[in-house]
C-alpha cells in the first residue's frame, strides 16, 4: 500500500506493480513485455516528481513539454475543482457551454489575427489530423479535388495517426513500417540547421522548385515552425518560414503550422511563427494548452478556410470527437493561459535559455557530442551515436533529474517555473551525460 503521509510504497508493492505493468501495460514506443521497468511515480508537486521509494526528481521534460507551470498548481487545481462541481462532460454536438466559449475567445485573442475559428480536439495528433482534413476538404469544396497532397520538409514529426504519419519524415522518422499504406506527399530536404544561420539560397531555390513543380496537386504546406520536435529537435532560421508563407501565397496554398510543441512560449515567442512575423491559414495547438493537466488540443483556421469548407458539398467539416471541448479540460486550459499571461513568462524562458547556454558550454567539444543547441526553454545535446537510454537516465537520476532521451538526442524542455538553481541542476546532469557519450 501507499504511505499517504510520505508518498511512498513498500518494496513489495513496488515490485508487484512493476511486474503487472511489465506483463500487461504497453508504454509508448516500447516492446511488450517491457525490456526495462519504468519508474513508479506516486506524486508530483512544483517541478518535482516523487517516486515510489521517496526519491525526488526535477522533471526536465515537463511531462513531454506540457506541464509548463509545474505540478499541483493551486490555481489550476481550483479551476478543475470548480468545473467538476458543475459538470465533467457534455456532448458538443448541438450543445455548447461557457468554458468552451471562454477558451475559444482566449485562443482567438492570443493567436495571429487571421485565425478566427476554433475546432477543439482530443490530442495533438487529432488536431493535426483535423488540420490535414481541413486542408483537403477546403479544396474539394472549391471544386479542386486534385489538390490532395501536402508539401512538407524532412525531419518533421506531427503525430502517430495515419494522416499525421504521412507528413512525418518518411526515411528517418518513426513510421517507416507504414510507408506503403500512407498517403504520398511532397517532401523537401530538412531545413538547414541553425536558428541564427544565414539562409541558404540553394535550399530556398529547392523549396521554390518543389512548390512550382507540384502546385497543381498541392493543397497546402505543413511544418513545425522554427523547431522540429520529436523528428530531431532541430532549430532553423525564421527566413525559411517566411519563404514558405510566400510560396503558399504565390501558389494559393494553405499554410498549416503545427505549434503543438512550439506554442505557448516554448521557443521564446508566444508562437513559433512569431519569430518570422507571419501568420498561418491553419494552426494546431496542444501540449501546454492545459498546463499538462488534461488531454486537449485545438485547430484554428481563418474565415476563408471555414467558409470555404462550409460552402462545399458536405456543408460541414467531417470530424467530431466524442470528448470535443470537454468542460474540465477547457476550464483548466483557460486557467493555464491566464496563469501564463499573469507572469513574465518571457523572462522565465529567457532565464532558462541563458542558464542552459552557460551550463552546456563546452559540451560540444566532447568527443561523443555532435552538436549542442539551445533556444528558448529547449536545450539539446546531439550525440554522434544513438544513446543508451537506461544508462543515460541513470546518470540523470543520480543528479536528481528526470530526462527521457531518444535516438541520438539528450534534451530538456523544463517547466518555465524552474528556479535558476534547478535549471543549473538539469544542465549539470546533461553535461555529465555528455561526458560519457
UniProtKB/TrEMBL annotation:
This is Adenosylmethionine-8-amino-7-oxononanoate aminotransferase. One of its GO terms (molecular function) is pyridoxal phosphate binding. GO terms for biological process: biotin biosynthetic process. The keyword Nucleotide-binding does not apply. Keywords: Aminotransferase, Biotin biosynthesis, Cytoplasm, Pyridoxal phosphate, S-adenosyl-L-methionine, Transferase. Its EC number is 2.6.1.62. The record marks 29 as: Participates in the substrate recognition with KAPA and in a stacking interaction with the adenine ring of SAM. Homodimer. Catalyzes the transfer of the alpha-amino group from S-adenosyl-L-methionine (SAM) to 7-keto-8-aminopelargonic acid (KAPA) to form 7,8-diaminopelargonic acid (DAPA). It is the only aminotransferase known to utilize SAM as an amino donor. Its cofactor is pyridoxal 5'-phosphate. The modification N6-(pyridoxal phosphate)lysine is found at residue 287. One of its GO terms (cellular component) is cytoplasm. It catalyses: (8S)-8-amino-7-oxononanoate + S-adenosyl-L-methionine = S-adenosyl-4-methylsulfanyl-2-oxobutanoate + (7R,8S)-7,8-diammoniononanoate. Belongs to the class-III pyridoxal-phosphate-dependent aminotransferase family. BioA subfamily. It is found in: Cytoplasm. Substrate binds at residues 64, 157, 287, 320, 404. Signal peptide: none annotated. InterPro entries: Aminotrans_3, Aminotrans_3_PPA_site, BioA, PyrdxlP-dep_Trfase, PyrdxlP-dep_Trfase_major, PyrdxlP-dep_Trfase_small. Pyridoxal 5'-phosphate binds at residues 124-125, 258, 321-322. It is an enzyme of class 2 (transferase). Pathway: Cofactor biosynthesis; biotin biosynthesis; 7,8-diaminononanoate from 8-amino-7-oxononanoate (SAM route): step 1/1. It holds the Pfam family Aminotran_3. It comes from the Bacteria. The keyword Cytoplasm applies.
Amino acid at each position: 500500500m501507499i504511505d499517504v503521509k510520505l508518498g511512498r510504497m513498500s518494496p513489495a508493492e513496488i515490485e508487484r506493480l512493476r511486474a503487472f505493468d511489465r506483463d500487461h501495460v504497453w508504454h509508448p514506443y516500447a516492446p511488450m513485455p517491457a525490456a526495462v521497468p519504468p519508474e513508479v511515480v506516486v506524486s508530483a508537486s512544483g517541478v518535482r516528481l516523487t517516486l515510489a521509494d521517496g526519491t525526488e526528481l526535477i522533471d526536465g521534460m515537463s511531462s513531454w513539454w506540457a506541464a509548463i507551470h509545474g505540478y499541483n498548481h493551486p490555481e489550476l487545481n481550483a479551476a478543475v475543482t470548480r468545473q467538476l462541481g458543475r459538470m465533467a462532460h457534455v456532448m458538443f454536438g448541438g450543445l455548447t457551454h461557457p468554458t468552451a466559449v471562454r477558451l475559444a475567445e482566449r485562443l482567438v485573442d492570443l493567436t495571429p489575427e487571421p485565425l478566427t475559428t476554433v475546432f477543439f480536439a482530443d490530442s495533438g495528433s487529432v488536431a493535426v489530423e483535423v488540420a490535414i482534413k481541413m486542408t483537403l476538404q477546403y479544396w474539394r469544396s472549391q471544386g479542386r479535388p486534385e489538390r490532395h497532397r501536402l508539401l512538407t520538409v524532412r525531419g518533421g514529426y506531427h503525430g502517430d495517426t495515419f494522416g499525421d504519419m504521412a507528413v512525418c519524415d518518411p526515411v528517418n522518422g518513426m513510421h517507416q513500417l507504414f510507408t506503403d499504406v500512407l498517403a504520398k506527399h511532397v517532401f523537401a530536404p530538412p531545413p538547414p540547421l541553425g536558428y541564427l544561420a544565414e539562409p541558404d539560397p540553394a535550399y530556398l531555390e529547392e523549396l521554390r522548385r518543389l512548390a512550382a513543380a507540384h502546385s497543381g496537386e498541392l493543397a497546402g504546406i505543413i511544418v513545425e515552425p522554427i523547431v522540429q520536435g520529436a523528428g530531431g529537435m532541430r532549430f532553423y532560421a525564421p527566413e525559411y518560414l517566411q519563404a514558405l508563407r510566400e510560396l503558399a501565397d504565390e501558389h494559393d496554398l494553405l499554410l498549416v503550422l503545427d505549434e503543438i510543441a512550439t506554442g505557448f512560449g516554448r521557443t521564446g515567442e508566444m508562437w513559433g511563427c512569431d519569430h518570422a512575423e507571419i501568420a498561418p491559414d491553419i494552426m494546431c495547438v496542444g501540449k501546454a494548452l492545459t498546463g499538462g493537466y488534461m488531454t486537449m488540443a485545438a485547430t484554428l483556421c481563418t474565415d476563408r478556410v471555414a467558409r470555404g469548407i462550409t460552402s462545399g458539398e458536405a456543408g460541414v467539416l467531417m470530424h467530431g470527437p466524442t470528448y470535443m471541448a470537454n468542460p474540465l479540460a477547457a476550464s483548466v486550459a483557460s486557467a493555464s493561459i491566464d496563469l501564463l499571461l499573469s507572469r513574465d513568462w518571457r523572462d522565465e524562458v529567457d532565464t532558462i535559455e541563458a542558464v542552459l547556454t552557460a551550463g552546456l558550454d563546452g559540451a560540444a567539444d566532447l568527443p561523443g557530442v555532435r552538436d549542442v543547441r539551445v533556444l528558448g526553454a529547449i536545450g539539446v545535446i546531439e550525440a554522434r551515436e544513438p544513446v543508451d537510454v537506461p544508462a543515460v537516465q541513470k546518470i540523470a537520476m543520480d543528479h536528481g533529474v528526470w530526462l527521457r532521451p531518444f535516438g541520438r538526442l539528450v534534451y530538456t524542455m523544463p517547466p518555465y517555473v524552474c528556479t535558476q538553481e534547478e535549471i543549473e541542476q538539469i544542465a549539470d546532469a546533461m553535461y555529465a551525460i555528455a561526458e560519457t557519450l
